[in-house]
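Illustration 12: Glutamate:gamma-aminobutyrate antiporter, GGA family.
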Amino acid sequence: MSNKNPVNTKKHLTLFGFFALTATMVMTVYEYPTFASSGLSLVFFLIVGGLFWFLPVALCAAEMATVKGWDTGGVYSWSGNVLGEKWGFANIFFQWFQITVGFVTMIYFILSALSYVLNWAPLNNDPMVRFFGVLIVFWALTFSQFKGTKLTAKISKIGFSIGIMIPAVILFILAIAYFATGGKSSMSLELSSMIPDFSKLNTLVVFVSFILAYAGIEASATHANEMTNVKRDYPLAILGLVILAIILNTIGGISIGAVVPADKLGLSTGVLQGYSGLLAHFGKGLDWVVRIIALLIAGGVIAEVSAWVVGPSWGMQVAGKQGLLPKSLSATNKEGVPTKFLLLQGVIVTIWTAILTFGGGGNNNLSFFTAISLTVVIYIIAYIIFFVAYIVFVLKHDDLPRAFQISKSKGIRLFFGFSGLILSIIAFGISFVPPSQLSGPGVSTTYLTILSVSFVAVLFIPFIIYHFMRKKNPLPAGQKMPDLSDGSDE
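Figure caption equivalent — predicted structure in token form:
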């Protein structure tokens, strides 16, 4: 069994290229309405989530990713070297599998934006049209990835610029002009409104959305070995992204909430409502501007989907090269892309699309919230394994050399590890509480049934795969984890 790095190791990713690739995975303008629905307490949630969850994920990932020989395989390598290969495989599996559900949510938004641009309601409301719309968008992006991560990086750079930064800048300028010209806020801006009402369970449910908004920053670490200077650029890119995400999300959420009343805010269309509300303050006949912005944001989400199509799949490919997947799924084309694995991923996304689109009887809100919650609970399991691995790493493997270290103090590093672990466990538990937006007879029951059955089914899959694949392809006696190092000094 080869121990060489199975992915394309050409050092072609610059600091900005890697930053853009990562940014498109964790920063999206379309999540601003979710933040706005919390009122001014969004500031509290973003800061708490950013400092005590997002930052720990970023820092812990940076530390483990820069351990010599651990820059290949992502969480499969990190958790596997610390907790054992079975847990490493479960970690990368959950990280990958959650996005097969998350793709549906992201493309739902793309269709919603296009529905607004084209003034074609069925694209957003008709289940059958939505189903085929998701498939067309996803399969087109999947086939585009067969050219390798160099193309993905280009798509990410363009998508980050036109789909995230430009719409965000326009939104901020409009918000400043709105208030400067006497615009009134629909959201209470009193400082007392910043502290959430913890006596209401729905308050905690909202926090899960903030965790999901920050999720994914560690997935791009599987591309670390493709950076021109990983030891210097990886930590810089990650830390810069944490700061920028907190600032942009805070300003964006407030900008939307200021002009769209909470009872009229739509989660999939709220960002466009925000632009419409701001522009309406300056006169009529500006709907064409909103349509252009909708296209730009849709382009940003397309770039996000593009980045996620290949992100976690690299880690699964590494595990597959070690005998944990059939050889046919680990095969790559001349660009180093696991094309057959991406085709399998596409089949799974197609199945999820059918379940989530039609499983709720065509109820758009039910489909949307179930997709979000299922993505969260699967992903949170991956984060729980990740943080447990980091804590054990600090306690038992602190002597391993790495290019980046959070602090020389073991106590500070354990603080970040336990902070992320505790918030992950809290987010997992409250994900099963039906959102207040779901109303109607039997809707909450359907939501819990689809969510619980799907989660339990997914939970056992990696352990079953690992059992049978390792029985077929056992590791050498006494070896607990394959050596993933490519033998270089990078």
